């Protein structure tokens, strides 16, 4: 049985961790280095850091923060936000990221995925998809959820992984920060067509939500609010997943 990963997410802005609901109403949630250190101590399998204003501001994710996180982390670190080319990805990997997550730039220039996978390997490339329900489908949105695109989430996940992305970070905008549980229908649709790991994101409230996401096909589960706000810990979640018979990393 494959081990299932539990991944805290650090959405950052101006050097701080922030959190909102459906990508709006952003509030401060703490210091990224302090939170990352705590989550690692609690047993997190990986950390995802997403610089949520990088694309809007026309820059890559903050390198200084990536280096600061690497200095305290011994677990994998995925970094996303504003990555537009191979040079910017290379800089973040040199600063300590293990993987880079691409979203808006890949939508604008899908060949970016091919180039990143060729240069760094598919294992270093995560396709981040922010999707919202629209006319009976899931519409991919870009620039931090601000802009609609004509792409459907399922078709884009398939294309992105065929181009070389080694993983999909799938976020339901409709569920983000709501604590209403993951969008299981979206998860099943995407995991049904791709052959790479899919990380479920958006909506976790209790451990049972993470169990349901894994049952729907997710290889890993990402959460933010429930950890930042102290509702539960990574260790407690992993204990509950184990009690449900799921293989988790210790």
User: What class do helices, strands and sheet pairing give?
Assistant: alpha/beta
Note poorly predicted spans. none
Helix content: 25-40%
The biggest sheet, with number of strands, parallel, antiparallel or mixed sense and barrel status, is: 8 strands, parallel, barrel
CATH topology: TIM Barrel
Distance between the termini: 15 Å
User: What's the number of helices?
Assistant: 10
Task: Give a short synopsis of this structure.
The protein is α/β, with parallel strands linked by helices. It has helices at residues 32-42, 63-72, 86-95, 104-108, 111-120, 153-162, 184-191, 207-215, 225-228, 234-243, and strands at residues 5-13, 16-21, 24-30, 47-51, 77-80, 99-102, 125-134, 137-142, 147-152, 167-172, 198-201, 220-223.
Protein traits:
single chain; 250 residues; alpha/beta; TIM Barrel; 10 helices; 12 strands; globular
Description:
There is one protein chain. 35% of the residues lie in helices and 28% in strands. By secondary structure, it is α/β, with parallel strands linked by helices. It has a single domain, classed as Aldolase class I (TIM Barrel, Alpha-Beta Barrel), CATH 3.20.20.70. Helix 1 packs parallel to helix 2. The two termini are 15 Å apart.
């Amino acid at each position: 049985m494959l081990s299932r990963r539990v991944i805290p997410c650090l959405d950052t802005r101006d050097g701080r961790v922030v959190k909102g609901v459906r990508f709006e109403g952003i509030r401060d949630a703490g210091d990224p280095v302090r939170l990352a250190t705590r989550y690692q101590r609690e047993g997190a399998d990986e950390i995802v850091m997403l610089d949520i204003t990088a694309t809007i501001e026309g820059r890559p994710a903050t390198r200084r923060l990536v280096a600061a996180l690497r200095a305290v982390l011994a677990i994998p670190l995925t970094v996303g936000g504003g990555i537009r080319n191979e040079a910017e990805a290379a800089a973040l990997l040199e600063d300590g990221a293990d993987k880079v997550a691409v979203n808006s730039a890949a939508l604008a220039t899908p060949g970016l995925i091919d180039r990143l996978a060729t240069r760094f390997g598919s294992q270093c490339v995560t396709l981040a998809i922010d999707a919202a329900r629209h006319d009976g489908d899931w519409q991919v949105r870009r620039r931090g959820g601000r802009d609609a695109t004509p792409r459907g989430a399922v078709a884009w996940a398939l294309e992105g992984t065929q181009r070389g992305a080694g993983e999909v970070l799938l976020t339901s905008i409709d569920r983000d920060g709501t604590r209403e549980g993951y969008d299981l229908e979206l998860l099943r649709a995407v995991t049904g067509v791709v052959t790479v790991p899919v990380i479920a994101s958006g909506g976790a409230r209790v451990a049972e939500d993470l169990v349901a996401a894994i049952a729907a096909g997710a290889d890993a589960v990402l959460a933010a609010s429930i950890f930042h706000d102290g509702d539960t810990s990574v260790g407690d979640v992993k204990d509950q997943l184990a009690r449900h018979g799921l293989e988790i990393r210790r």
